[in-house]
């Protein structure tokens, strides 16, 4: 592994060792799913998965780059960290990581996580395709994005609570993303500037890296990624961390690399999105970033009427989207303007 360059996720199998498998990663996503693990033990640290198995059934292991791919088989998973080595032999799992001081691999104790996702979320149901399904799921996804966070009196974002003072002192907010996530941040920029009074700049992650654009300790860098595993966005995150900026993550995937490596952040809770063209994740990203703006600017009396107007508008979004979904197809060609 020390001789490899770039990003990779590798799994090795040999006919000479039929009951063994080795996996490792750096920069790319690799998930280990573990089946037949009892719920009461799923949060325990483990070096050998045999200690977690209580029912005597055969164990199954699944490797994937996406949590959605393993939900049909198990809800117990381990997000493999960079430079970790997973060794599976005769139904047991060992985790090793190279110790730079000792210059040799050392055993690592890790905990399994529980995937909060149902099989129904990755099926089309009665819809013709996933994009159609996800468009019609937006009233529900918007509701779950705002549930417990948006209140008449303001916004409660537990993921940012401990960092609000630092956010308010920021010299600049930098939104960093790729593709649809970048466009969602672009749509949210006016809210942030209006409600916080903090200048906002936009960066495409790959362009920021190519230019080695300036980032300072007084800046707040907000990284937006539906999967939390976008390669260029993660490289830009490493760059911002090196520069000492406060790094905030906005992602749809609990346990993703983005959610683990940022200082703080918000999960959009939009549910699994399979369609290539983003729909419900895009709208939920905009709503989350609007709520971030509301939280940062909540100490400014001059913007109180505007904040109340935006909160009212956000609260009405799910019902308005439901109304649009219920329109006959011939009427959906009309243009609707929703002001919040």
Automatic annotation (TrEMBL):
GO molecular function: carbohydrate derivative binding; glutamine-fructose-6-phosphate transaminase (isomerizing) activity
Xref: PROSITE patterns: SIS
Domain SIS, residue spans: 163-302
Keywords: Repeat
UniProt xrefs under Pfam families: SIS
Keyword Zinc-finger: no
Family annotation (InterPro entries): GlmS/AgaS_SIS, Ntn_hydrolases_N, SIS_dom, SIS_dom_sf
GO biological process, one term: UDP-N-acetylglucosamine metabolic process
The name this protein goes by in its record: SIS domain-containing protein
Organism (species): Triticum turgidum subsp. durum (Durum wheat)
């Amino acid at each position: 592994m020390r001789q490899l360059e770039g990003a990779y996720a590798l799994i090795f199998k040999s006919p000479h060792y039929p009951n063994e498998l080795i996996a490792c990663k750096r920069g790319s996503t690799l998930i280990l799913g573990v089946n037949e693990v009892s719920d009461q033990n799923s949060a325990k640290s483990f070096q050998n998965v045999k200690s977690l198995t209580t029912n005597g059934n055969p164990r199954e292991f699944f490797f994937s780059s996406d949590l959605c791919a393993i939900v049909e088989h198990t809800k117990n998973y381990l997000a493999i960290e960079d430079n970790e080595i997973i060794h599976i032999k005769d139904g047991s799992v060992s985790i090793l990581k190279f110790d730079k001081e000792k210059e040799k691999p050392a055993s690592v104790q890790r905990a399994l996580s529980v995937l909060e996702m149902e099989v129904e979320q990755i099926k089309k149901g009665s819809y013709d395709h996933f994009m159609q399904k996800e468009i019609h799921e937006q009233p529900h996804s918007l509701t779950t994005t705002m549930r417990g966070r948006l209140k008449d009196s303001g916004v409660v974002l537990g993921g940012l609570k401990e960092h609000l003072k630092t956010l308010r002192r920021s010299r600049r907010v930098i939104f960093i993303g790729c593709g649809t996530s970048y466009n969602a941040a672009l749509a949210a920029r006016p809210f942030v500037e209006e409600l916080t009074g903090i200048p906002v700049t936009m960066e495409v992650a790959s362009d920021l890296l190519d230019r080695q654009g300036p980032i300072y300790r007084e800046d707040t860098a907000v990284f937006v990624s539906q999967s939390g595993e976008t390669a260029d966005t993660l490289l830009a995150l490493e760059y911002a961390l090196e520069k000492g900026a406060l790094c905030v993550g906005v992602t749809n995937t609990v346990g993703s690399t983005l959610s683990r490596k940022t200082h703080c952040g918000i999960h959009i809770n939009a549910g699994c999105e399979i369609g290539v063209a983003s729909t419900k994740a895009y709208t939920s990203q905009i709503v989350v970033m609007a709520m971030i703006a509301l939280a940062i600017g909540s100490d400014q009396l001059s913007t109180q009427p505007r904040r109340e107007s935006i909160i009212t508008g956000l609260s009405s979004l799910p019902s308005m989207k439901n109304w649009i979904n219920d329109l006959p197809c011939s009427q959906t060609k009309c243009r609707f303007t929703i002001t919040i």
